[in-house]
Protein 1
Amino acid sequence: AQTVTQSQPEMSVQEAETVTLSCTYDTSESDYYLFWYKQPPSRQMILVIRQEAYKQQNATENRFSVNFQKAAKSFSLKISDSQLGDAAMYFCAYRSVTGTASKLTFGTGTRLQVTL
Amino acid sequence: NAGVTQTPKFRILKIGQSMTLQCAQDMNHNYMYWYRQDPGMGLKLIYYSVGAGITDKGEVPNGYNVSRSTTEDFPLRLELAAPSQTSVYFCASSYAREQFFGPGTRLTVL
């Protein structure tokens, strides 16, 4: 079974600065998807960014980018120019491409605080 | 599109009571899921469905039941509620690559 580990329970960043959230995973599969989800105090789960394992290029969505290191099984999220609205829980998630159910395996999350 | 909707938003149950958490989606997705999120933790899969009439257990199915009689609806049944089932419950639906989540139901069992 796959596992996802987020070793940083909490992180803090000043507004306009850059922060990197870490995620490692364990799998024996060669093809899969990785995701970062944001969960603000409203509880809503919001997809931030997605990475396909077969793609060497790191995914980017505006101020959010990933550093995907397949051999190291590492998938970190970089948030540039941090804003107060970025304060939230961030979850890393893994999804196999085999099977029919597209199930997600989540890490335990990192709480990001953004300070003035 | 309303997306994925869940009712109720909040509920307090007494030990031993039963209830059904409702989930509906209007995106015609075949895949649907139920997760629970305990305080300070990630989401864990309870049950999932790949289509009407087909359901299967996830990581933490004990104490729960599901049914899927239509593509749109995927209710989660709690029988004999226990304090260990105090959690936030999320329903989600999916097409090929992305899961869409409902707003969650906060359940407290006292």
Protein 2
Amino acid sequence: ETGVTQSPTHLIKTRGQQVTLRCSSQSGHNTVSWYQQALGQGPQFIFQYYREEENGRGNFPPRFSGLQFPNYSSELNVNALELDDSALYLCASRLREGGDTQYFGPGTRLTVL
Amino acid sequence: AQSVTQLDSQVPVFEEAPVELRCNYSSSVSVYLFWYVQYPNQGLQLLLKYLSGSTLVKGINGFEAEFNKSQTSFHLRKPSVHISDTAEYFCAVSLNSGYSTLTFGKGTMLLVSP
């Protein structure tokens, strides 16, 4: 039990649609990261937010965007969905100061048809 | 940039046998090293981590790992596995600051049979 929750658990969308995934971090964890895990692969870093601002980004296009809120919740938004966006999306939170360990949520399984 | 190579995609083993899951990393600077486990349809759970100090790190569920700087390896071991250890195991690396993100390997599926 990491104290990180995600919603929804599963989601089915069609190509071209938009989706919003949500994450609730542990209280006091002011840094949240999002990862995409395609089937049979390790998680890949999408972006990181610290105190409501994006401060790091992986190799993902701008149609992947995010928000972080003062209450330790965050969102991942994906526009113009493509079939290859089908994956498990994981959020992870940590304390920035000395925060070497990231605590992962259970993930949201997104299927794009 | 850092990278992680997990040399085995699948490791089949019998219950109560020892197991080693191999991980090699590449980085030009000092790093932190992690092993995470993922059970079917679940998120990632931290098994253990190496930050500094003793190169032998003990984690949960009887797992341990040894950091070898000269060989840039961080292999995971367990002396006697259980059926319940069947899962996907991911090795990951990050820069040794609280600011950095994780770079994962592709994972090793540990299959424990009776």
